[in-house]
Amino acid sequence: MTSETPPSISVSFACSSGEKIPLMNRRYQVFDYFTRLFGNSSSNSEEAPKDGYVEFGNIGEATSGRTLGPFAGVFAPVCLSMFSAMLFLRVGFVVGNAGLIETLFQFAIAYTIIVFTVMSVCAISTNGAVEGGGAYFMISRTLGPELGGSIGTLFFLANIVSSALCLTGCVEGLIDNFGEFGYLMPKDSYILNDGHWWRFTYTSSLNFLNLMICLIGATLFAKTTVIIFAIVVICLLSSVISFFLKSPFQVEVPAANTFVNQTNTTVLLNYTGFSLTTFTENLGPSFGYDYTSNNIAVSFSSVFGVLFCGVTGILAGANMSGNLKNPSYSIPRGTLGGVLFTFISYISLSIFTAATCSRDLLQENYVFLMPINIWPPFTTIGIFTATFSASLSCLIGSSRILEALAKDCIYGRLLKFVNYGVWRSNPIAAVLFSWALVQIILFIGSLNTIAQLNSILFLLAYVALNLTCLGLDLTSAPNFRPSFKYFSAWTCSLGLMGSVVMMFVINPFYASTSFGLCLLLILLLHFFSPCEATEWGSISQALIFHQVRKYLLLLDPRKDHIKFWRPQMLLMVANPRSSCSTITFVNDLKKSGLFVLGHVKVDKAETNLDYTDKTISSWLTLVDHVKVKAFVELTVANSVRDGLHHLVRLSGIGAMKPNTVVLGFYDNKVPLDYFTRLDSVYKTSVFQGITTNEEKFPLRLPNEEKKLSASEFVSMICDIFQMHKNICICRHFDLYNKTDIVKNIRFKYIDVWPVNFFGPSMNDAYDTSSLFMLQLSCIIKMIAVYKKHTLRVHLLNTIDIQSQRMQLKQLLSTLRIKAMINEVTEWSQIDLSTLDSDKNAYISRVNKLIKNQCAETAICFVYLPMPKEIRGSDLQNVNYLNSLTDLTNNLPPTVLVHGVSAVTSTTL
């Protein structure tokens, strides 16, 4: 045996200049090239390359937007966003009111939620390519458009609020430095006036500066992120060093604290330096009043709301996913590193603050870090750079989320202006819209008030992220295999529950409102959004599959009880074009049971192995169009009868299998096309093709031979009986119009004929078939359309009519069926002896009798007798079918019913 060398594969790429770049046949070179392009390729085409070349378009354009690594793209933005207004402006507020022990406890809670959420983010982001949109992209591609769109919208609003929060903090720091009695201003001089509207003017000006930077492009900010971060770290280090170098002295109350300054006396607050006494006094909580919010009383929840807003920046790196070289690599490392660095910074600053500053200083002067700094401008620079960069980052992030929502067409035409307003990859319209919303939030004015709203919205986003990861983990989907392994269902659950609990701890009203708004958005998007986004995949489908499989295994057919019987229908459909009314009726008849549409393609099975794959989509579209809750089962067989055997045996799964088979009647009527009739409620062009060959479900031509013979149809009835399934045969349903039944006052009754007309007996009303008929008629009566109709059970006039009436009345009472008993006196005029001597004449008279009673009948249920010979000859079968035809001629929509098993119960 000789070993052959595998054929080499020559692959080359076309670059932007048109030059074709050949690649060797070594797999590693090919893999390396695909790795470098993986995040940017938008093509999912599996077509073979033409002429041995794979076209990737302009490679330079594809990679131009992704330039950032884990440090500049994730770590620095995360740290800046988490520091924001909290680092230099609110650490004293938190420690001064909550005390050191409670502060550390609150940081532990906040960072526990944060760490678990980061684990979820890392798991999702390392499970596939993350594109622009960050957290919204992760959530929407997992939860689907409804949940993803609603959470994405609220996350967009969270970034808007966060930008306003940081601007408010920035202005607060500037006022305390350059306003009246500002720390950097000589006595009795100032640059900035103070007051609500002055502050609004300053924040608006900074917001406009943000706008200008964003319009120039986010790349400018991205390039300076590391420099800004370095400046903030230097300022932070200067504050930490100052605790060790600054001697004890007294600090004046800032001018912004009008509630203390209204006494017109100078109030001095103590900076003690490192002191065990000061440290001990600051261990426990002592809640005071917030002088920036009209002296509102401070509580645990309000402190935590402010504290948590300082750690909500964990998604700043994920928001830049569209600019990252390798999001799956950068997001986990950069985010976890940023969380660790900020945690150490906050804890250290809190401990030093508690050990050196009196309680009064912390509660009455939120910018105490400025006067105690060895060089106060360090703190000023730190406040300005941390808050302004965070506000700019949030504005950029919110505009990118809005752009992603618009691209996904979540809100249809409502956000089309965003797609039109893009210039050189910069979403100008999204930036302008986000800027306008930030401007509105700035009217609130108070940093602490905005902080609570900001925390609630971000916590809601964390709920969604943890829920997303939890769902992916619980479904055990084979394709969920993230490279980040340090997570589990427990971490997701703890992050989710912690987020929900703390939302209501911070502000129950805001939390309830945000959940209500989220639910409202979900419903609106579900019913009105044009976005189907089936290519995204929805975790709901995976969860449903997981649960359905589990419960199907628990559904044991050996434990079935007649009390809980329900119809499980298999409707054999020759052509849905002519069967829409029957499909609708059987959907009502199923009573929340299983409903399967079965179809047999008569052909050679071996040449149609892909028949189901090719046609199932059209059938599912049909189900949606007719608006029924049904499954579809298709098969290919040599005959309709053989196909019926396949479907009866194999339809359903486990204990959820059809117990009733429904057939259309075999006659010579020309089938109606409900899809093209002008008066049809099912009229549609969805199934029309450009040519006749492309038309879906083409009808049989008038001169075309049927795929089914009359004898085979009767044999199918017998087969169903032998397979121990209930049988229903629907006739005249071309006359059935559900809308007409509602509007037309002529229809008053639902009729039941519990008598075997092919061999009448006094016990017919109490056998299995009649009880099955009564059960079906009772189900139809439960449907809203038929509630106004009277259920009428016909009793044939016999010698012992009174006794029969009492027995039937007792039966209906026992079965809890409210029905009117109608005595048919004309029955006495029919000679039963003609049943054997002249059956055709007998059947004609019975048909006339039924027809005379049905002038106001909407639906008629008639007893279906079985053929005398189950395996009769073709002639016997045809005669039997002719008798059924004569029996039901010219009746309203009629259901011939034969039951084989008990379906009613009189026990509790």
UniProtKB/TrEMBL annotation:
Please name the InterPro entries in this protein's record: AA-permease/SLC12A_dom, SLC12_C, SLC12A_fam
The entry lists its GO molecular-function terms as:
potassium:chloride symporter activity
One GO location term (cellular component)? membrane
Where is this chain primarily localised?
A: membrane
Q: Name one GO biological process term.
A: cell volume homeostasis
Which first-to-last residue range defines the signal peptide? none
Q: Where is the SLC12A transporter C-terminal domain?
A: 589-667
One Pfam family name from the record?
SLC12
Compartments, as annotated in UniProt: Membrane
Residues passing through the membrane, by range: 68-89, 109-130, 151-175, 195-218, 225-245, 296-316, 336-355, 375-397, 428-450, 456-474, 486-504, 510-528
* Keywords attached to this entry: Membrane, Transmembrane, Transmembrane helix, Transport
Its placement in the membrane is given as: Multi-pass membrane protein
Say if the entry is tagged with keyword Transmembrane: yes
Q: Which residues form the Amino acid permease/ SLC12A domain?
A: 79-570
Family named by the database record: Belongs to the SLC12A transporter family.
Name of protein: Solute carrier family 12 member 9
Native organism is: Melanaphis sacchari
Which gene is this protein's source?
slc12a9
